[in-house]
Design brief:
This protein is mainly alpha-helical. Helix content is 81%, strand content 0%.
């Protein structure tokens, strides 16, 4: 449902500041596993992340259905849920990354479990509401808001990278300092979307059936057509590979025996590689055959960068300057590979949406669920390697996991695209 709103330029600009949410995504993908391991043993980190995020994914179809049944003119179909999710996300984010490592194990484990459960749930709701509001209040074909959102997203992610240079020192206190600032970004992102669009709340009200049928609601998400199921499985595996690397970047930098500045250098190099390739291929591949080429080449480049970054420090010890150069080169390759794979999956997922038979909002919600599940899987995988212990196990495990997941993800996505073409013909 698109509504013709004619938002003023300043409101469109304010709406685009929802892209500040990228600061959270960047921070969460880099520091979640590291901070959990500062709090609890590896087995507890695996249990906490695995259970809480799985539960939040399972509950999301219910939240999606309830949000779409809100008819309040005061709260709006999405705006009430958005402001609650914004406040909760910002508060819980601060709480999670400021749990004192010196507290008792029972306290740390219980607080981390409760906070991470509600945080992962509220973040999914936040993302879904922001997307749903944005696509409905911007005129069809409007390119200004997406362009401004992308710009804000890049800048907010860059801020996180810069903050690591000033605050990250392999301690919980350093991570907490960055978390306080990022929580403000979350709050600003939600408020920007809310206050720039609250005047159109009545236009977003839509009559939905009052009856809530659990089986039908879950069927929307978990009983997809075969082609769409293959494509979603491919995205899940590929995201697991990418997030395994992101969540392990702190221990990998430690393998190179570099200080906290090494993390900033690695993140900046990866961002540069990704941005450069994204700029070159900003339109994305137009044909399914191009998806396959992009995903294959991107996976190989990504796997190569990860393998060298994780295995090289096991074989040789480089002087600090050469260690920086080698790590940054590997990170740049990883970023370039990620950009190619991401460009391919934009095509894959658009194709999946076209044959999935669900609304765009439901599909956005499904992608958020897949990402959350991938985060949980990556934390569990890294925790298993940590339990076995040893830098060799960690390095080989990361490289092997990335290789298997990238290749399997690409294969399943290609299969889904091919099946989708058969269904459409």
């Amino acid at each position: 449902m698109y509504v013709k709103t004619g938002l003023a330029l300043y409101k469109k600009t304010a709406l685009s500041f929802g892209g500040l949410f990228s600061a959270f995504e960047c921070f969460f993908a880099v520091f979640l596993f590291t901070y959990l391991r500062m709090l609890v043993p590896a087995y507890a980190a695996a249990l906490i992340a695995g259970i809480t995020m799985t539960v939040s994914v399972v509950l999301m179809p219910i939240a999606h259905s309830l949000i779409n049944r809100i008819r309040s003119v005061l709260l709006g179909r999405y705006h009430g849920a958005l402001i609650v999710a914004t406040l909760l996300s910002s508060l819980l984010f601060c709480l999670l990354f400021t749990i004192p490592p010196t507290a008792s194990m029972a306290y740390k484990a219980s607080i981390a479990t409760v906070v991470l459960l509600f945080l992962s749930f509220s973040i999914q709701i936040f993302s879904y509401c922001v997307f749903s509001i944005t696509v409905r209040v911007t005129d069809h074909g409007d390119r200004l808001v997406p362009l401004l959102q992308s710009t804000v997203s890049l800048l907010s992610a860059a801020v996180v990278i810069v903050l690591t240079l000033f605050y990250f020192d392999y301690t919980a206190a350093g991570i907490a300092k960055i978390a306080y600032i990022v929580s403000i970004f979350i709050l600003a992102a939600g408020c920007s979307v809310y206050f720039s669009t609250y005047t159109v709340i009545p236009k977003l009200i839509k009559t939905e059936p009052r009856a809530f049928r659990v089986k039908a609601e879950y069927a929307r998400f978990f009983r997809l057509k075969k082609a769409a199921a293959f494509a979603c499985a491919g995205r899940y595996l590929s995201m697991t590979a990418m997030l395994t690397v992101c969540l392990s970047v702190v221990p990998v930098v430690a393998l190179w025996q570099l200080p906290g500045e090494g993390l900033c250098a690695a993140l900046a190099s990866a961002a540069f590689g990704a941005a450069a390739l994204r700029f070159v291929f900003f339109r994305g591949p137009a044909e399914p055959s191009h998806y396959r080429i992009f995903s294959l080449v991107g996976a190989l480049v990504f796997i190569g960068g990860v393998a060298v970054a994780t295995l090289l420090p096991l074989w040789i010890t480089l002087p600090t300057l050469y260690a920086y150069l080698a790590l940054c080169g590997c990170a740049c390759l990883c970023g370039a590979g990620y950009a190619l794979v991401g460009t391919a999956y934009t095509g894959y997922m658009e194709h999946t949406y076209s044959i999935s038979g669900v609304t765009r909002g439901t599909y956005k919600c499904l992608k958020g669920m897949l990402t959350t599940a991938a985060v949980a899987t990556a934390v569990v995988i890294l925790s298993v390697f940590d339990i076995v212990s040893g830098s060799t196990v960690l390095a080989v495990g990361i490289a092997g996991t990335v290789a298997v997941c990238c290749i399997a993800g690409a294969a399943l996505s290609v299969k889904g695209e091919q099946l989708g073409n058969i269904q459409k013909s």
